[in-house]
Amino acid sequence: MEPHKINVFTQNPTRPLDVTNRSIGQLVDGMLYTGFQGRKLAESVQAWNNMLKEEELTVMMGLTGAMVPAGMRKVIVHLIKNRMIDCLVSTGANLFHDCHEALGKKHYVGSHLANDEELFRHGVDRIYDVFAFEEEFRHTDHLIADFARGLHGKRMSSREFIGLLGKKICEDGNGDGSIVGSAYKYGVPIFVPALGDSSIGIGLTIARRAGVDVDVDQIKDVDEITRIVEMSGKTGVVYVGGGVPKNFIQQTEVVASIMGADIAGHDYAIQYTTDVPHWGGLSGCTFDEAVSWGKIAADAKKVQVFVDATIALPIVAHALHEKNMHEKRKFPLFLWQENGELTIDFKTF
User: Fold this and answer.
1) For the segment 237-294, what is each residue's pLDDT rounded down to a tens digit?
2) SS3 of the chain
3) What's the pTM?
4) Which active-site residues does the annotation give?
5) Domains of the chain, first to last
């Protein structure tokens, strides 16, 4: 009988995981030789870690879903403080909930089986299995409206607005553990391209009804984040979910190319999502599809993990922490001019 012929498809055997004493980083390394989404999760850590080793690369994160109410707030703060991300594009809701907790308010462990009519009668809002008090949310709405009064007559991007909000939270002594406070302190810009679609938008509406003139210029957002891409040597993207933040970051490559920049898509792309591509929606569309638009480079390292982000983020963040705790990274320092111009200076963290 002829011996089994080895071909290009059978060069790398799987390695069954054993159960032993090891760190999360070592566990993830072992998962590189398993299958399915376990391997994809490990590949995402490998790709993200490689991004952090690049000489001049800007890491951009898109954040959707109720990650702050679900307890992921300090994970994002860790990524900011340790410059594992350099720019954050978020839903307004996550940042509202972040401010809510910075003010000492809480989200509570609940149940998805609770009676929602009964919750309503008790003034309790439900986010799947997380509870919060509606009255406390409205209190935070009004605090944001009060903050906006000090910005009367200003026209600014969401990056500038959230930066000022983060500064205020730090000055009030509530910045520790806060996403917006940490981003302000460590120079990580935050964009909220759909700011009106959140309780921050509600707070600004309260202020506007009271005669406060605050104009958050969302087209300025498009210009500013595109300048980041234009001025960066390379870019890598990490998406938690999809939605508006995903496309807002993706389209920077298109805008930059229209403006004459010689670029051909983001160089790394990672996504943690529960959406799927066959419904045609952006949140589940593949990075291969994005290549056809010029949003992702054809030779980019692309990893999509179909997983609940509340499972993925803690594992990935711990693995990256272990792998980089003794490493120095060259990260971008963003220097914004009053006329909207941007320069980037890469510093060693």
Assistant:
1) 999 999 999 999 999 999 999 999 998 899 999 999 999 999 999 999 999 999 999 9
2) CCCCCCCCCCCCCCCCCCCCCCCHHHHHHHHCCCCHHHHHHHHHHHHHHHHHHCCCEEEEEEECCCCCCCCCHHHHHHHHHCCCCCEEEECHHHHHHHHHHHCCCCCEECCCCCCHHHHHHCCEEEECCEEEEHHHHHHHHHHHHHHHHCCCCEEECHHHHHHHHHHHHHHCCCCCCCHHHHHHHHCCCEECCCCCCCHHHHHHHHHHHCCCCEEECHHHHHHHHHHHHHHCCEEEEEEECCHHHHHHHHHHHHHHHHCCCCCCCEEEEEEEECCCHHHCCHHHCCHHHHHHHCCEEEEEEEEEEECCHHHHHHHHHHHHHHHHCCCCCEEEEEEECCCCCEEEEEEEC
3) 0.96
4) 295
5) 60-313 (3.40.910.10)
